[in-house]
Amino acid sequence: MRILFIGGTRFVGRAIADAARDRDHEVTLLHRGHTSPADLEDVEHLRADRDDDLSVLAGRTFDATIDVCAYVPRQVRQLAEALDGRGGHHVFISTMSVYADTDAPGLTEDGALISLDDPETEEVTAQTYGGLKVLCEQQAASSYGDALTVVRPTYVIGPHDHTGRFTWWVRRIARGGDVLAAGPYDAPMQVIDARDQGEWTVKLAEDGTAGTFNSISPTPPFGFGDLLDAAVRAVGPSGTNLVWPDPAWLKDQGENYQSLPLWTEGEHEWTMAADPTRAMSSGLSPRPLTETISDTWSWIKDEQPPLVPGWGLSEEREAELLAAWAAHTG
How far apart are CA 138 and CA 27, in angstroms? Predict the structure, then answer.
């Protein structure tokens, strides 16, 4: 197959492109050229800014298109116009952030979606991100009809993760000792290895599988505590101990989802306890979580990616909070 990627050079898209290349597909990456991994040098690269000029696609025909990086519906519409029916089966990478709040586990792909107060906005913020992705999905449905697959990932983890969220926990737990954890222990959590998502997404494109799929694992119940426990088993030195302060106390100390990445700040967010049945029935096959964590730690040690500013606690702040919690409970 000839597969066009819009994006495809970083983390989520890179894992899908890697999977496509490994399955001997002809891969074309359309991107601005700011990032181009050495291990993707053997595929075709088209340099273009999707917000500016897509004329580089004129006359080109593909069997499938995988759009990894559309954030506003105008981008989806402009891509469809540039391809003019020559893009083959279309895969749009969306997000679990499209869902409105739900009050119970078991969310399916038919759950209620977010709507924006201002559907004309193109300002992508934490508040508009999910709603804009809903509009992107709707534009894709209008443009591609039944030749459309929508993939809604939860937190994507694994090697090449540039977000600095899950990788912060892997680094921290690999140092060992007393680790300040962010509860409650059973707060719902789901993740997906980028490589597993990549292999499955390529299969969906190969088969022309239409529909919408939550890209999530594992099956609930699974909590943040289970995730950190898995990290301790995978990379924690002997004696690593997770310390679970009261979530309300942590919030009173000024901590939040950035200082303690992936923390839901004491809330049970049931969109993180969604039903993976549809995805797994269509071929999603997550590897053991400990394998993902071990591979991520190996990548960190080999590549030495910098810490991402704004995410995680300093060692000094963590020690201060651990001492304060011990005094509070002692």
Answer: 26
